[in-house]
Automatic annotation (TrEMBL):
Gene Ontology MF terms in the entry: hydrolase activity
Family: Belongs to the strictosidine synthase family.
InterPro entries: 6-blade_b-propeller_TolB-like (IPR011042), Strictosidine_synth_cons-reg (IPR018119)
Protein name, as recorded: AGAP001732-PA
Gene: 1281443
Gene3D superfamilies tied to this protein: TolB, C-terminal domain
Pfam families in UniProt: SSL_N, Str_synth
Record-annotated Strictosidine synthase conserved region domain positions: 185-271
Transmembrane intervals: none
Length: 450
């Protein structure tokens, strides 16, 4: 058989896999072209600099994928692989606040033992509210570690938003909109104790993030009522719903889009209450966690994207048949190992199913640039902090340490917590001042200063 004949037959098989109806997976929304606004040029406020270069590695080797960060006083709380929430003291101590799932059998068993992502301080008790993509959303007491499951993945009570509900809606449409959560991710707690949370996607679990991002958007922003014990859908079809943050007056809530490289806004008060829009788009990377204060908020860009390094999601978004083909190939490759694991509990089969489609496997292909943004509550980018030495790229969250010039950097792949020293110019801008051009903003702190 000649090469041309082999290529032709291969092409026919791939075409059939791509277009034949009824093949797995069955997705929530059909494959359609997706339009993503291109990343803004790295110019002006987004111009490259080295303000995140030389990040110090805290607890190197002792923190497995410190994704989420919350700081109160002298204590830093981080979510790490293995279902753990840790408290880091200012003298180098590490205390396990709580363990959400059973013990891990390896770094490939996160679907069993948990991998908490977003967290926020409770406003109705000395607790943390923690979202785990496999184990649901939990209330965890900071001191005792007592935990309570608030939003289970399989028995969550979810209702429609009042604006979405309609007497003309079919039962099938209502059931679709109120489907069970699949990847609880970000969380932001309101003053009354309710919280807003994101469900990243509905078609695949967290360890199959590549497949999830190749499908059409199925993420959601939801509101959880503490009094009622149920969640209300605010926005559906969010492309990789991620970090969540409330405005200081709680007039709106923001949710980051990993795939869309944008941030959406849902209005909670005022004449636009119950509606939503795009707060900012064209960001130079995939949006991860958000955290704010009185004057603005920080945006972690976990995968950089720009003209020289286009997003793989953005490149494939306009081509639904190609995305469907890739998803089906992933499913076919993983299927025998899933059956093997389900039948025997084989560790090797679990290892294979974990790595097929896991976004972490693409990290070597990510651009070297690491970036965090500081934005105001009007949607303006106030500061962009970059690095070009990979000491802190793949950044999930940026959190300043109150009363210091330090910025903590979380990551879904590193085995340490990053820390950089902010320059005087950066601190001046954060305080509402002007940049002193006598001290170039691109000048990075030395390792000795850190």
């Amino acid at each position: 058989m000649g090469l041309k004949s082999k290529l032709f037959k291969t092409g026919v098989v791939l075409l059939l896999i791509a277009v034949l109806p009824g093949l797995p997976p069955k997705t929530v929304f059909p494959f359609r072209p997706i339009s993503i606004v291109p990343a803004r040029p790295l110019a002006g406020v987004l111009a490259p600099n080295q303000l995140l270069n030389g990040a110090e590695r805290l607890h190197e080797g002792g923190l497995q994928q410190p994704e989420g960060i919350a700081v109160r006083g002298n204590a830093t709380y981080v979510t790490v692989y293995g279902g753990k929430i840790l408290e880091l003291g200012d003298q180098g101590s590490v205390r396990t606040v709580a363990k959400l799932g059973p013990d891990c059998v390896g770094t490939y068993s996160e679907r069993i033992c948990g991998r908490p992502l977003g967290l926020d301080f409770d406003t109705k008790g000395n607790n943390l509210i923690v979202a785990d993509p496999y184990l649901g959303i939990w209330q965890v007491h900071i001191k005792t570690g007592d935990k309570k499951l608030l939003v289970p993945k399989d028995k969550a009570i979810i209702v429609e938003d009042r604006e979405q509900s309609s007497s003309s809606s079919s039962e099938a449409a209502r059931k679709l909109r109120t489907r069970q959560p699949n990847i609880p991710n970000g969380v932001a707690v309101a003053r009354n104790g309710d919280f807003y949370w994101s469900d990243t996607a509905s078609d695949f679990i967290f360890e199959d993030a590549i497949q999830a991002l190749l499908c059409n958007p199925s993420g959601r922003l939801l509101h959880y009522s503490r009094a009622e014990g149920r969640s209300r859908v605010l926005i559906d079809e969010v492309y990789g719903a991620n970090g969540v943050v409330l405005s200081p007056d709680e007039s709106f809530v923001l949710v980051g889009e990993l795939g869309g490289q944008l941030i959406r806004r849902y209005y909670l008060k005022g004449p636009k209450a119950g509606t939503h829009d795009v707060f900012v788009d064209g960001l130079p990377g995939a949006v991860d966690n958000l955290n704010g204060d009185a004057t603005g908020f920080w945006v972690g860009l976990v995968i950089a994207a720009d003209e020289s390094n286009p997003s793989f999601v953005g490149m494939l978004a306009p081509f639904p048949n190609l995305r469907r083909l890739l998803v089906r190939l992933f499913v076919l490759a993983e299927a025998p190992f899933r059956l093997w694991y389900d039948a025997t509990g084989s560790d090797f089969a679990l290892w294979v199913t974990h790595h097929i489609g896991h976004l972490g496997g693409l990290v070597p292909l990510f651009p070297d640039r690491g970036t965090v943004l500081r934005m105001d509550w009007e949607g303006n980018i106030v500061l962009a902090l970059h690095n070009d030495d990979t000491s802190s790229h793949v950044i999930s969250q940026a959190v300043p340490v109150p009363g210091t010039d330090q910025l903590l950097l979380g990551s879904p792949v590193n085995q340490w917590l990053g820390r950089v020293k902010l320059t005087p110019d950066t601190l001046a801008v954060l305080k509402g001042g002007k940049v002193d051009r006598k001290q170039p903003a691109t000048e990075a702190p030395s390792r000795e200063e850190l």
